[in-house]
Specification:
Chain lengths: 463, 478
């Protein structure tokens, strides 16, 4: 247990339940646009978060002032705050003392020291390789490295420590389209190791996609069969995580999930697993509950939803280690969702708009449909049925008789995500799951490409 | 060491390390928020933090570095590190960067605040949150929720050009929500706006909302929506309420006029803009009724300040004048690239993030009509209120909004309630169809505008009024 955690717990008055998390982080982002580095930022720091429950009342807060006076102020302020609040009837107690799951015993398994120590020059070198291989097209995006160490302790004696490193490249190459606007192609990769990011490969991939989007045609809005590349599937996972597989929504009957029912296609198995070898993260949640592999859907049958201690108590379940530290506002949800891939030989790089041999195999089965790279600006219309609207981005192509035949201009859709994955609707699953770049939600999902029977497009580029 | 001393030390260290320009901000921030559901407090958070961020320009490349709780040595290290980062940027170089002039201000500014929101007893705040959510639940909402948020931020800014500015900005706001759960869908009504209402103000902002007076109405409407007919699909005349209009302005005007987007600096994530600088001063953005103003001087607006985060004094200017696009949101570097002579819209989400072009207060000048006049003048249409969903493409052209509630308008009268209303369109086509605009504006606050990498949350304000639009596609559903 870190000295800061011990110090804070020693200041908590007797009889008060408390949990403390100390996160030390360092992150750096090297951004580029118009093929040069235009923003280059880094920050480092330590944040102490305390939640305490005194006389039936709960308060939480945090500080970045970690000297003795700052920590004392944090405890005093929250103790005084809790005393003024109405009772918290839903308090579920702090997590009991216990060890991490054997799979997560090494809380630092996802730390790469070289990535933790990455320099601005190393990030710039990856950017340079991406820009160089973009074949003269304008390039934009970022290379990011980050590292964090979290230490947890509570008044029940739970004591945990873990950390991770992460490195990501997210970039577009921009061709001039025949309608005057840019035609963008995208390539992304994420790993625990900066050394895994191949800027040259990704720049070439983005450029190939961009070149293939030139001359896009308008298609009328309709229901189309689709092949979704892994990045687009990642948006489905985010939507399912937020609205369906969410312990708060489930406890309040706002979730589509009904455990035990065959709500999804039999080909679909969905898990949340922060401990998987190809992802990164801290192996315990904000309440000090160790993370574990959680099955959400098995062979199309809904198994359950993620819980923190509060929602678990409400529905008579156990916490699955999904407290997100944001209080009870958004609810516990999966941050490491993964669709089980079909499996097969290692994917190989493809040419043109198709990202790899996995996607090409799915495209080959489509008589008439669309290949979609990315979804963008997706927002929910109805949380209960998870009807989402959004747009395509970074490349859409018409598929005819198993071949990509023409680029298509962006389309708007309005689609229930669970309905798109309903029994009989999943026509194919890619052989491999790809680790997806965290873009804004804090999630590190993994997804294969999917071939789906229908996607409801409701508007074209012109309205 | 004072906060100004720490910022000065960081700037001097960056200059000594080779920067040709540097600025630094020291910030102390105290935030408080409380959430309640069905009569119980579900979260109370109090956070304090302190830190310094320094920005260095070496040659034509920027570097930014931030550290928490800086002392003198940490501030100097931060300045040196920012310069080192900038030097690394030069390995993938771009065109020369200049900064448009900004007078070296030595100033102090504070936002108006009648009642310090952090000093209002938590017991009083808790009683308000629990009582209104209990009332919502008793009135038939399956979920009665409420929330408030307080931000108290002090900033000390120093630049190598002689700026020395301190600001104290207090912001406050909140709202409440009634959700009903049906067999196949949920319905929600918000008050006063879908995220609440926020401004640079004290607790008077919350008192002025009079939350208890509106619980019964929104709970009743949330129940009624479960039984209401769906908004029919088609093309029709649409009247949009002020609280939805503010988001329409935010998404399809505010973001579109950000100069960094226009220049391609946000192309990979937030996106670009359909606007081309060649059209500035000539392009018809909307109808003659459309006058959009950028105004960080607006008292009480959530996007108000005395000086932006690179020391430029707040100024009011037109973005759209009589329907013609005439202005942008800009910073000193982006303005220089575009050949413009003004910045003033650069802001950062705290000390750890690099300042970037952001909205301030962007919204309507009042029009000539009342809402009743719009309804009276409409033979066949739909009136929509309060946002439920929003989505727009990366050029800020193709949008679709869902609203919480709508009513038919027939022969000048508001008729039956409609559920799940949506409308969709293309920005300039939509704005050019605006034929009536309300005379009373409300400055709505948006506390969660996302942009940038790493992501930054911005606070923006939007003067908005009801308005009427012709030939709008409505009723898109899944």
């Amino acid at each position: 247990m870190s000295a800061i955690v011990e110090q804070v717990l020693s200041l908590v008055p007797a009889g008060v339940e408390a949990e403390v998390t100390v996160v030390e982080h360092a992150s750096a982002v090297t951004r580029f646009a118009n093929s040069y580095i235009h923003q280059n930022v880094a920050d480092t720091g330590t944040r102490v978060t305390l939640r305490l429950h005194a006389a039936g009342r709960t308060a939480s807060g945090s500080t970045t002032t970690v000297d003795a006076a700052g920590l004392a102020r944090l405890v005093e302020r929250l103790t005084a705050t809790a005393a003024l609040l109405p009772p918290d009837a839903l308090w579920a107690g702090v997590a009991p003392a216990g060890s991490l799951d054997p799979a997560a015993r090494d809380g630092f398994a996802s730390v790469d020291p070289a990535t933790a120590a990455a320099t601005p020059a190393e990030r710039a070198a990856v950017v340079g390789a991406f820009v160089e291989s973009a074949k003269g097209l304008l390039a934009a995006g970022y290379v990011r490295t980050s590292t964090a160490t979290a230490t947890f302790g509570n008044t029940a004696g739970q004591s945990l420590r873990g950390g991770y490193t992460e490195a990501s490249l997210d970039g577009v190459a921009r061709a001039a389209s025949t309608d005057g606007g840019p035609a963008d192609g995208v390539a992304r990769a994420t790993s625990r190791r900066l050394a895994d990011l191949d800027g040259g490969l990704l720049g070439a991939r983005a450029a190939a996609k961009a070149q293939a989007t030139i001359g896009g045609v308008d298609l009328p809005p309709d229901d189309y069969e689709v092949v979704l590349e892994p990045q687009a599937v990642g948006d489905l996972l985010s939507g399912l995580s937020f609205y369906v597989f969410n312990g708060r929504a489930f406890a309040e009957r706002r979730s589509f999930a009904r455990p035990g029912e065959a709500q999804f296609d039999g080909a679909l198995t969905l898990v949340d697993d922060a401990l998987a070898a190809d992802t990164y993260g801290v192996p315990f949640d904000a309440e000090g509950t160790p993370k574990r592999r959680t099955e959400l859907v098995r062979d199309g049958v809904t198994q359950g939803v993620p819980h923190d201690r509060r929602t678990a108590r409400e529905v008579g379940a156990e916490s699955t280690g999904h407290s997100n530290g944001f209080g009870d506002t958004f609810g516990p949800m999966g941050t490491h969702l993964a669709i089980t891939p079909a499996g097969g030989p290692a994917a190989t790089e493809a040419t043109g708009p198709v990202v790899d041999s996995d996607v090409a195999a799915l495209v080959a089965g489509v008589r008439r449909g669309l290949l979609v790279t990315d979804f963008w600006y997706t927002r929910v219309l109805d949380p209960r049925s998870a009807v989402i609207t959004g747009l395509t981005r970074n490349g859409v192509w018409l598929i005819e008789d198993g071949e990509v035949t023409a680029p298509v201009r962006n389309l708007r859709f309005t689609q229930s995500y669970p309905a798109a994955l309903a029994p009989g609707r999943v026509l194919g699953i890619g052989a491999h799951a790809h680790a997806l770049v965290e873009r804004y939600s804090g999630a590190a999902h993994r997804a294969p490409a999917l071939r789906l029977a229908s996607w409801h497009f409701t508007g074209g580029a012109s309205g | 060491m004072t906060e100004f001393d720490a910022a000065t030390a960081a700037v001097e260290a960056a200059l000594a390390a080779g920067a040709r320009y540097a600025d630094a901000r020291v910030m102390l921030r105290s935030d408080e928020s409380m959430s309640a559901r069905n009569g119980a407090v579900t979260a109370l958070n109090r956070s304090d933090d302190a830190g310094l961020g320094v920005r260095a320009l070496v040659g034509s490349s920027w570097g930014y570095f931030a550290v928490p709780d800086p002392g003198g040595a940490a501030a100097r290290d931060a300045g040196r590190t920012a310069a080192e980062i900038a030097r690394a940027s030069a390995s993938v170089p771009g065109p020369a960067i200049d900064l448009v002039p900004a007078p070296a201000e030595v100033a102090s500014w504070a936002s108006p605040c009648e009642e310090d929101p952090l000093s209002v007893p938590l017991s009083e705040k808790g009683d308000l949150m629990t009582s209104v959510t209990a009332d919502l639940h008793r009135a038939g909402a399956d979920l009665g929720e409420a929330q408030y948020h307080i931000w108290d931020h002090r900033t000390w800014f120093v630049s190598s050009e002689g700026h020395r500015i301190d600001q104290h900005i207090r912001k406050c706001g909140g709202g409440m929500w009634a959700t009903t759960v049906g067999e196949h869908e949920t319905q929600r009504r918000s008050y006063p706006c879908f995220r609440g209402q926020y401004g640079t103000a004290g607790w008077e902002q919350i008192r002025g909302l009079d939350l208890p007076a509106h619980t019964a109405r929104i709970a009743d409407e949330a129940k009624a929506l479960l039984r209401a007919p769906a908004c029919p699909a088609g093309e029709t005349t649409v009247i949009i309420g002020s609280e939805q209009m503010m988001l329409q302005i935010h998404e399809s005007v505010g973001h579109a006029i950000e100069l960094d987007r226009i220049l391609g600096w946000e192309a990979a994530m937030a996106g670009t803009s359909w606007l081309d600088l060649a059209g500035l001063g000539d392009l018809r953005y909307g109808s003659e009724l459309m006058n959009i103003v950028i105004d960080p001087t607006l008292p009480g607006g959530l996007g108000s300040f005395g000086y932006d985060d690179e020391g430029t004094r707040a100024q009011r200017r037109y973005a759209v004048k009589n329907g013609i696009w005439v202005g942008v949101l800009a910073g000193r570097d982006s303005a220089a690239v575009a050949g413009l002579d003004y910045g003033g819209s650069v802001r950062a989400d705290g000390w750890s993030k690099m300042p970037m072009v952001r909205m301030t207060n962007v919204g309507f000048e009042p029009g000539p009509h009342t809402l009743d006049e719009m309804l009276d003048a409409t033979d066949d249409g739909v009136y929509m209120e309060n946002n439920r969903s929003w989505s727009i493409d990366d050029k800020r052209l193709n949008f679709q909004f869902g609203c919480e509630i709508a009513w038919e308008v027939k022969n000048g009268r508001r008729g039956r309630m409609l559920r799940n209303p949506t409308y969709t369109g293309i920005g300039p086509t939509f704005w050019r169809s605006m034929d009536m605009l309300g005379s009373e504006t409300t400055t709505w606050g948006t506390p969660n505008c996302g942009k940038g990498q790493p992501g930054q949350i911005g606070h923006t304000g939007h003067p908005a009024a009801p308005a009427r639009f012709q030939n709008v596609r409505v009723g898109v559903s899944g």
